[in-house]
Q: What sequence folds into this?
């Protein structure tokens, strides 16, 4: 069953409400907020590469509030243990049973702050929950519920004492982006409202978690023309054959791009995907999955620029295919 | 890169005209390539521009001798230019370099540079592999080597120069690509400069290694024999380009040349002449070797393989050892039919490479000629000499036709050799008569007067005079003509005949007493001409018609001849008076009425003619624009009649984008939304959305949808035209901007 134009219109209106609500907290960041909700509604996770003080925690909390969900923030440190994230089973002397105490991962929006400061073992503790939405402790599986989204951050500047995220884990993030500093006008507005601390700003719930789940299900039904599949395939292939790339985009990356493009198209009020949706999401969805060769990195080539070049060199679907 | 690629061409031309021609070709080609890329010309338009440039610039650049006022082509120049496109390549390797601006031999370099530069610029600017732009210069470079000279003095330098230019281009492309990737990135100027410097250093290292390697190889290894087209494709040996050996016959008997030793020969059989050249073509003036056109068998010279099988030829196997003393000509002395030849001495390889042989006459020649110090050994089969000429029967070989015998010679032949006799007997009678009646004089100082030459007129005089005085030049030709009149295939041979001891210097015609062996030294005045006739068995029999040298008696007075003149019966022309001129035929005088009508008709015809010319000129001038309009109409029709609604809708958008391009708007390659944003206006954005929905939405587009989209596009195009005004709309209609299609160029992609 495909999404109808009316569904798409309603979807776009709901998403706009969510984005507008969160943007009241994160001034001038419409694009990143929309991307974050696109990731949420695509049942994906978001990696933010940002310096401290750009509003990552505010974003997570505002998103959670807007969908009437919970949010937890986990500050990753080198001594953080996996059980500190997933939860732990504790023996209850009164009942004589082992009780599961859920960790901070049990929330609608989980902010994994400075994820690259934890050991690889702790980082990998997030793998199962990010991919399957459940935690297994002592042989028992515990679903984290819906909606569920991990917003992880890492500081791109400070590298001392960090553990680089393995490719497998990077691949599990649907998108990577950055909030960045606000522009001049937004900065003035922030300064004018400095009396009220950001975390005290309450975002009124716009939708319920059940409605979010419903929107995510609806986004899956957006129509994707075969020529769009072909276009995505050519883009992915181009990343694999580029001279500057050591490891190109995986199939998981291509699937993620299609899934995100569906949500993005619905958010624009369309019940079908157009090449512009793919182009708009190509950089945040694909760039972090590339591994450049050492020479290219030495020359200053970035994955984002390479994706931009691939988009230029890969023509969108033509009339021949569209016929 | 083209400058380096043209280095191997320089030794072919070595003239300023070559530099001008190559510069014009490269600049014109690059201009066409750049213009085609910037204006997105389709391939056919680029090809047309190249052809036009070739025709317009070709004559002044490549055939400068046919240009008027240096730059204006002439019809004859255009003919030479077009013919040179196909024919000059062959001539380029058959004419000895340097050829300069000779005839149309600059056409190959002009064509190569023009096409190569246009293709290179197109590859660099319009494809995703600009590195491939090195291929056309490489082709020009290789072509220059292939068509170049055999002995290249600076081959290594040319190779290194081209390598340096190619590596520089590769570095340029690599830097451009890398900069395209990092311009928008976080990399600073320092990182960019470092990356560029790293590539430049790498390229420098490559060039340094190549330079050192080439130097080591050049020093350590001997220069190999250079093989180019010219070395493999020797120009055909054309005997007609040479002076007939018989034409300069008398020069061998001058005071400065007669005693000069010419050749030292060992192994020459007795009574056998040392043949230089065999002549079978006579035009009434000069007896000569035939040409390479195949009409005369004596002119077909080919390169000699290892040896020729002469086992079928009857005769005496002979080995000749020849040492060249003062002889300097292209003809290689020999006896009989050559079987194998081996040159020795310092020039052995060159002589062997330039040696050509006529298999029919058995004579050889060498390009460049023999000079003092050359030596060779020849193995031949020499036919047995025949003494009984009377028994000979004519052979059947067909020789080039000769002119009719002059009257005096015919009468002389009829008197000495009656037609009632057998051919062999007639031939013997002629030879005997020449021996008996003839006297030898070369017409030198101190000798009886004797004119040189062997034209028919000279031969007629030869037998008319008493006594008959001449030398081998006249006797051999006269005997050959009379032998052919009798029926024998006959040809003239120029060579050296062993002489008498008392008629020449020491050891001439006999064993060299000093050596004690059989060496024979021929001097200049041993040169002789004789004939060979073919018998019924196919063998060529040597016949010497020259009389012995003996004292010449006093000249007999000429017979008085009565010249009768016919009476003239033509009356003198009548004198015409002015009165006669006035009395013309009245019927031929037009009357006044007809004259007026004819004037009107003439005026009308003139007007019609001028109108026709104006219409024709207008049609010619308008034809390119009409062609563009027709091409666009055809493109629109194809899009409008596509086989599915989706394609028709897509075609409608392309039609709109093309219209915007023709109106001067920059429409980038990309999605429709991006193109609409570039064109501007809400209507374009809405139209892009409608087209996207029709193409990417669920379900196929309905048949009526395409009509609505085309109607919207037609309306948008009309509004585009209305916005810019009538004049610019007209220019847009004939603009070539959109005819390049949607070919994505690197240049366009970045914009």
A:
């Amino acid at each position: 069953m495909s999404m109808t134009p009316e569904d798409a219109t309603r979807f776009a209106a709901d998403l706009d409400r969510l984005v507008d609500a969160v943007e009241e907290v994160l001034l001038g960041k419409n694009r990143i907020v929309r991307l974050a909700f696109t990731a949420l509604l695509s049942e994906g996770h978001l990696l933010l590469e940002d310096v401290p003080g750009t509003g990552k925690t505010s974003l997570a909390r505002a998103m959670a509030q807007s969908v009437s969900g919970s949010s937890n923030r986990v500050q990753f440190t080198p001594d953080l243990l996996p059980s500190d994230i997933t939860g732990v089973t504790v023996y209850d002397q009164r009942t004589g049973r082992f009780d599961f105490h859920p960790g901070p991962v049990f929330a609608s929006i989980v902010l994994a702050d400075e994820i690259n400061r934890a050991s690889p073992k702790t980082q990998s503790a997030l793998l199962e929950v990010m991919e399957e939405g459940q935690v297994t402790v002592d042989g028992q599986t515990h679903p984290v519920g819906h909606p569920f989204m991990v917003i992880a951050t890492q500081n791109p500047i400070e590298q001392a004492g960090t553990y680089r995220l393995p490719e497998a884990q990077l691949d599990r993030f649907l998108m990577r982006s950055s909030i960045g500093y606000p522009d001049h006008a937004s900065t003035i507005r922030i300064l004018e409202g400095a009396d009220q601390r950001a975390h005290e700003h309450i975002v009124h719930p716009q939708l319920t978690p059940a409605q979010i789940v419903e929107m995510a299900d609806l986004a899956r039904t957006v129509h994707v023309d075969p020529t769009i599949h072909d276009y995505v395939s050519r883009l992915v292939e181009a990343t694999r054959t580029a001279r500057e790339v050591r490891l190109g985009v995986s199939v998981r990356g291509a699937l993620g791009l299609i899934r995100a493009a569906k949500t993005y198209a619905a958010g624009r009020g369309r019940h079908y995907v157009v090449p512009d949706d793919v182009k708009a999401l190509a950089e945040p969805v694909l760039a972090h999955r590339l591994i450049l060769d050492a020479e290219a990195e030495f020359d200053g080539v970035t994955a984002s620029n390479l994706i931009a070049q691939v988009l230029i060199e890969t023509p969108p679907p033509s009339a021949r295919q569209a016929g | 890169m083209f400058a380096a690629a043209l280095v191997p061409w320089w030794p072919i031309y070595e003239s300023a005209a070559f530099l001008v021609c190559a510069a014009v070709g490269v600049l014109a080609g690059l201009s066409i390539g750049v213009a085609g890329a910037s204006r997105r010309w389709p391939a056919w338009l680029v090809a047309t521009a190249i052809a036009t440039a070739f025709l317009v610039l070709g004559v002044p650049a490549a055939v400068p001798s046919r240009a008027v006022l240096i730059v204006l082509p002439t019809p004859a120049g255009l003919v030479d230019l077009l013919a040179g496109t196909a024919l000059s390549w062959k001539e380029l390797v058959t004419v000895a370099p340097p050829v300069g601006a000779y005839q149309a031999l600059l056409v190959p370099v002009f064509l190569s540079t023009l096409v190569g530069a246009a293709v290179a610029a197109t590859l660099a600017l319009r494809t995703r592999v600009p590195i491939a732009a090195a291929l056309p210069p490489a082709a020009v470079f290789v072509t220059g080597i292939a068509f170049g000279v055999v002995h290249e003095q600076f081959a290594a330098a040319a190779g290194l120069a081209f390598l340096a230019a190619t590596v520089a281009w590769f570095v340029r492309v690599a830097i451009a690509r890398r900069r395209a990737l990092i311009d928008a990135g976080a990399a600073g100027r320092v990182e960019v400069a470092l990356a560029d410097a790293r590539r430049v250093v790498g390229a420098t290292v490559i060039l340094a290694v190549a330079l050192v390697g080439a130097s080591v190889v050049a020093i350590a290894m001997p220069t190999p024999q250079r093989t180019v087209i010219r070395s493999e494709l020797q120009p055909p040996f054309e005997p007609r380009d040479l002076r007939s050996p018989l034409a300069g016959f008398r020069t061998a008997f001058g005071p400065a040349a007669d005693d000069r030793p010419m050749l030292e020969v060992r192994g020459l059989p007795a009574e056998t002449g040392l043949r230089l050249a065999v002549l079978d073509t006579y035009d009434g003036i000069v007896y000569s070797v035939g040409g390479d056109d195949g009409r005369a068998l004596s002119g077909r010279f080919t390169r000699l393989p290892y040896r020729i099988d002469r086992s079928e030829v009857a005769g005496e196997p002979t080995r000749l050892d020849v040492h060249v003393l003062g002889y300097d000509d292209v003809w290689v002395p020999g006896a009989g039919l050559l079987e194998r030849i081996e040159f020795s001495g310092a020039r052995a390889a060159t002589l062997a490479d330039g040696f050509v042989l006529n298999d029919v006459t058995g004579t050889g020649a060498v390009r460049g000629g023999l000079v003092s110090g050359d030596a060779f050994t020849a193995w031949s089969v020499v036919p047995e000499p025949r003494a009984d000429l009377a028994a000979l029967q004519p052979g059947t070989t067909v020789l080039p036709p000769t002119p009719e015998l002059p009257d005096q010679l015919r009468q002389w032949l009829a008197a000495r050799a009656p037609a009632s006799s057998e051919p062999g007997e007639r031939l013997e009678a002629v030879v005997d008569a020449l021996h008996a009646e003839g006297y030898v004089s070369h017409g030198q100082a101190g000798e009886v007067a004797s004119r040189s030459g062997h034209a028919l007129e000279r031969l007629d005089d030869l037998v008319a005079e008493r006594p008959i005085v001449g030398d081998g030049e006249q006797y051999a030709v006269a005997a050959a003509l009379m032998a052919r009149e009798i029926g024998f295939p006959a040809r003239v041979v120029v060579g050296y005949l062993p002489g008498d001891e008392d008629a020449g210097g020491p050891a001439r015609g006999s064993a060299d007493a000093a050596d004690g062996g059989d060496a024979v030294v021929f001097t200049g005045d041993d040169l002789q001409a004789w004939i060979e006739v073919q018998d019924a068995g196919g063998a060529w029999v040597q016949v010497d018609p020259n009389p012995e040298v003996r004292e010449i008696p006093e000249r007999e007075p000429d017979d008085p001849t009565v010249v009768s003149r016919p009476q003239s019966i033509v009356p003198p022309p009548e004198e015409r008076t002015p009165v006669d001129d006035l009395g013309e035929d009245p019927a031929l005088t037009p009357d006044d009425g007809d004259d007026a009508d004819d004037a009107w008709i003439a005026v009308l015809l003139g007007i019609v003619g001028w109108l026709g010319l104006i219409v024709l000129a207008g049609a010619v001038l308008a034809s390119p624009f009409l062609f563009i309009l027709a091409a666009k109409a055809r493109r629109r029709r194809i899009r409008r009649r596509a086989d599915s609604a989706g394609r028709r809708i897509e075609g409608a958008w392309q039609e709109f984008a093309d219209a915007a391009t023709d109106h001067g708007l920059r429409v980038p390659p990309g999605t429709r939304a991006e193109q609409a944003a570039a064109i501007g206006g809400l209507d374009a954005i809405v139209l892009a959305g409608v087209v996207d929905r029709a193409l990417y939405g669920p379900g196929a587009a309905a048949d009526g949808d395409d009509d609505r989209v085309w109607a919207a596009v037609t309306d948008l195009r009309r509004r585009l035209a209305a916005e810019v005004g009538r004049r610019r709309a007209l220019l847009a209609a004939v603009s070539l901007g959109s005819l390049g299609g949607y070919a994505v160029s690197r240049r366009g992609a970045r914009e």
